[in-house]
Amino acid sequence: MSSIEKHTFCRICEASCGLNVTVTEGEITDIRPNEQHIGTAGFACMKGLNQHHMYASPDRLKTPLKRVNGKYVPISWSQALDEIGTKVKALKAVSPNKIAMYVGTAAGFSILHPIFAEGFMRGLGSHNIFSSATQDCANRFASATEMYGFPFHQPFPDLDATRYLLVVGTNPVVSKWTFLQVAHPVKRLKAISARGGKVVVVDPRRTETAKVADAYQPIRPNSDVFFFAAFLNEIFARGAVKDDIVVAHMRGLDDLHAVVAPWTPERTEAATGITPKALKAMVSDYLAADGASIVTGTGVGMGRYGTTAHWLAEAIGAVTGNLDREGGMIMGEGIFDFAAYAKREGLFTRDKRSRIGGFRQLNGGFPGGILADEILTPGDEQIRALFVTGGNPLMTMANSGRLKEAFADLDLLVVTDIYLNETASLATHVLPATSPLERADLPFFFPLFLGMQSAPYIAATDAVVAPPGDARDEATIYTDLATASGVSLFGNRWAQWGLRFMAWANSLGRRRSLPIGFILDRILKANGQPGFKALTRQPEGVPRPKAETGKFLRQRMTTEDGKLHLSTPLLLEEAKGLEQAFKALTDSTHPFRLITKRAHHTHNSWTQNIAELTRGAERSTNHVYVHPSDAKTLAVKEGDALDIRSETAVIRLPVKLNADLTPGVVAVPHGWGHQGAKGLSVASKIGGANVNLLAADGVDNIEGISGMVHLTGIPVQLSKSTADISTESWSGL
Ligand SMILES: Nc1nc2c(c(=O)[nH]1)N[C@H]1C(S)=C(S)[C@@H](COP(=O)(O)OP(=O)(O)OC[C@H]3O[C@@H](n4cnc5c(=O)[nH]c(N)nc54)[C@H](O)[C@@H]3O)O[C@H]1N2
Ligand SMILES: Nc1nc2c(c(=O)[nH]1)N[C@H]1C(S)=C(S)[C@@H](COP(=O)(O)OP(=O)(O)OC[C@H]3O[C@@H](n4cnc5c(=O)[nH]c(N)nc54)[C@H](O)[C@@H]3O)O[C@H]1N2
Ligand code: SF4
Ligand SMILES: [Mo]
Predict the structure, then answer these.
(1) Staple 141 to which of 114, 151, 536, 580, CB 3.0 to 4.6 Å?
(2) CA of 207, closest atom in ligand 2
């Protein structure tokens, strides 16, 4: 058998690890880390090294499918496109907003996928776009829009030089960082300590990251906003604000001060569980460090007051001079000035409002938490068609039970995925996509367009293997869907004709596909980068300059007045809820709070179908993690079944004892409970329950300013179950 060696990079998470791949007779037979890679230098995780098992699965979608009497039957692309196009045209004639799209996280890991999907929606003239951002990070986009004038101005810690790193609500040792492309989390964190710096983790669980850090501070779920408010309060109290920097580059200091003034460390202890002594010691260390940084993650964003918490965390860096400086937080620079481009084109404005709840659009998307209501509530603009692309909202969004009802009610549900997952199992049509290793690509959009990289570089990859059957890349799929629906991508007729011609010419005698390498080459060269082919010949990546510190505050701010806004009317309005939030946290009668937990061997909802990663009792289900002292109170032991009840549903899971949790806090990993999926032959036969059955959706359960739903800190009741663990744990659906 002849084997060939190929180089590529992983497109599962932001680390984007460089990989060496052995291809035997057209199939990937081995994946290893690429030691020479500039950014990841021999690092990769078990998901990345096992991904070929997922892509080679017999469950892969190979042709379009149509639901006929509850069964999925293969149809041709032309039939699928015709049927979808006919329906879309009819709905569009009533109102384009009757057609919606949900863009999942896998879409972000292909450069062209989100651009073409959004281009299709723009062509239709529909503003009803939803995305997984309101499940993970929209709070950061909202606060960045307010503070810096551009949602993607997302500073990240200068890991190479920082002397103090405060890690709040993120667990990079497992998640491999978010909003930053860097590998080897353990090595990187230990290097900070080794050079005399300090890493402190603030989390309701003593996480894998906390275990390699210098210090760990437990915190009650949902209370980060009070932690940061007290931190800032203490900074003001010590007179540690750097007035010269604030005067030169910022405005809104007095209003910021007024917001944090009531929140002394003495007072916030009741909400956070952090003593004034511990908090003041952290502030002392932070201020004493020659370059300090604060990084927050989904544990903060998925909570109730994520935008306010993130705003205050960023404001700490700004007023102490730790923003835009070496060793503090740095603002990356991508291959082009995305912020300036967006401003010129009028992108990312927040003037459009949702029909339900009147929420502002953020980054062109509305809150996922109103999607069920948008589908189920009658009206001229009631959503009747939904395109789901690179996501599995039925598993990953709040209140899956309600969503299932809504999805089943649609006239048209088109799911573009590599699997017949549970969302696809409700679709009218399913379209087979290429998996990451089957398409040419550039690195994730954050490093490429925004420079969120510890060691900036650029790379490109060709497809490593051919896709199965008649699976197609999404750029081609959305170009063809636009044609079938009688519209032009981006509303640009010339672009549409050009793309159709390119697809036709590139497909003569071959699989239908746009010339992806050629399109990527144009993007690269238009931005002064080496061409696509040249880059694929340098699999270790080509270095790019590091962003110059100091320049962001001086020249790159995107606000109208060029100043960093330490407070804005919207942020101040949101902060008015703090007194009530404090009351809710301190008066709570719920004995338990439910938080999230990621694992090394799972990725959201899409890796549970890899047999290699889900073998054995330990890995063939998710668990409910309970502190031993709580287990005693509940009279349960390891392996017992526990019923977890929220205001929306009950799920049942086996108990795992975990002394790393703060007592009163339980953790359940998401992405499990695949028993309802028609096309996941491994995942549908193992255990697990969908934790998002327990999360509430709807207008009252959404953070107004960002549209985030609350997937952590959920109040739950726990009771020992008398029944067995069985597939009944899916029973809420
Ligand atoms: N309770 C709880 N809920 C959560 C979270 C949590 O921590 N706790 N985390 C949240 C987070 S951070 C996120 S980002 C969301 C994720 O929410 P989603 O994006 O909705 O969910 P994923 O499970 O990532 O779904 C990715 C889908 O893309 C498919 N896929 C993989 N590669 C490709 C490809 O190349 N093309 C196409 N078309 N499809 C592909 C996979 O098969 C899978 O079905 O979930 C959120 N939900
Ligand atoms: N192995 C693996 N890696 C992944 C993913 C995956 O599913 N599996 N998903 C990817 C995706 S889509 C994303 S967005 C990133 C997310 O990356 P991270 O944001 O790092 O996500 P988590 O690892 O879930 O870390 C969240 C932390 O927040 C803590 N937490 C929960 N509630 C609270 C709270 O109220 N306050 C505080 N302070 N902490 C809280 C949790 O205990 C947990 O340690 O990870 C990516 N990487
Ligand atoms: S860390 Fe992320 S990018 Fe690297 S191999 Fe694992 S899944 Fe892929
Ligand atoms: Mo995410």
Answers:
(1) 151
(2) 44
The domain segmentation of the chain, as residue ranges, is 3-49, 65-126+341-443+473-503, 139-333+550-575, 589-731
Which residues does a 6 A CB cutoff place in the pocket of ligand 1?
Answer: 104-106, 110, 132, 135-136, 298, 389-393, 396, 416-419, 421, 433, 435-436, 474, 596, 604-606, 670-671, 691-692, 711
Q: What is the pLDDT of residues 307-359, one digit of tens each?
A: 999 999 999 999 999 999 999 999 999 999 999 999 888 889 898 999 999 99
Q: Whose CA is nearest to atom 11 of ligand 1?
A: 136
The ligand 2 atom nearest the CA atom of 227: 38
More confident residue, 615 or 598: 598
Tell me which of 103, 403, 438, 605 to substitute to probe ligand 1's pocket, judged by most ligand atoms within 8 Å of the beta carbon. Answer: 605
Span 11-41, pLDDT tens digits: 999 999 999 999 999 999 999 999 999 999 9
* Pairwise CA distance, residues 666 & 660, whole Å: 10
> What does the pLDDT look like over 256-279, one tens digit per residue?
999 999 999 999 999 999 999 999
Residue 476's pLDDT is: 98
How far is ligand 4, taken at its centre, from the CA of residue 12, in Å?
Answer: 11
The DSSP line for 222-268 is T-HHHHHHHHHHHHHHTT---HHHHHHHEE-HHHHHHHHTT--HHHH
Please name the fold of domain 65-126+341-443+473-503: Rossmann fold (3.40.50)
On the question of pLDDT at 729 being above 50, the answer is: no
Read off the pLDDT band of 2 (50, 70, 90).
confident
C-alpha 12 to ligand 1 mean position (Å): 10
> For 632-671, how does the pLDDT look when each residue is reduced to its tens digit (9 = 90+)?
999 999 999 999 999 999 999 999 999 999 999 999 999 9
282 within ligand 3 shell (Cβ under 6 A): no
Superfamily of domain 139-333+550-575: Dimethylsulfoxide Reductase, domain 2 (3.40.228.10)
- pTM (two decimals): 0.97
Does domain 3-49 fall under CATH 2.20.25.90? My reply is: yes
Q: In this structure, are residues 593 and 585 in contact, taking their beta carbons and an 8 Å threshold?
A: no
Residue 183 CA to ligand 3 centre (angstroms): 8
Ligand 2 atom at minimum distance from 132 CA: 12
Residue 285, token pair as written in the block: 């260390």
3-state secondary structure of 8: strand
Distance 280 CA to ligand 4 centre (A): 32
Q: How far is the CA of 700 from the centre of ligand 3 (A)?
A: 36
Give the Cα separation of 532 and 523 in Å (integer): 9
Q: Which CATH number fits domain 589-731: 1.25.40.10, 3.40.50.620, 3.30.420.10, 2.40.40.20?
A: 2.40.40.20
pLDDT of 728 above 70: no
Q: Specify the pLDDT at position 445.
A: 85
433 alpha carbon to ligand 1 midpoint, in Å?
A: 15
- DSSP letters, 638-705, are TT-EEEEE-SS-EEEEEEEE-TTBPTTEEE--SS---TT-SS-TTGGGS----GGGGS--SGGGB-TT
Cβ neighbours for 284, distance < 8 A, ≥ 6 positions apart: none
CB of 47 closer than 6 angstroms to any ligand 3 atom: yes
* Element at 167 (helix H, strand E): strand 164-168
- Whether the predicted pLDDT of 132 surpasses 50: yes
In a mutational test of the pocket of ligand 2, which residue from 49, 135, 156, 175 has the highest number of ligand atoms less than 8 Å from its CB?
Answer: 175
Calculate how far, in angstroms, residue 54's C-alpha sits from the geometric centre of ligand 1: 15
**Which residues is 714 bridged to in the sheet?**
594
Q: What is the CA radius of gyration of the chain?
A: 25
For the CA of 16, the closest atom of ligand 3 is 3
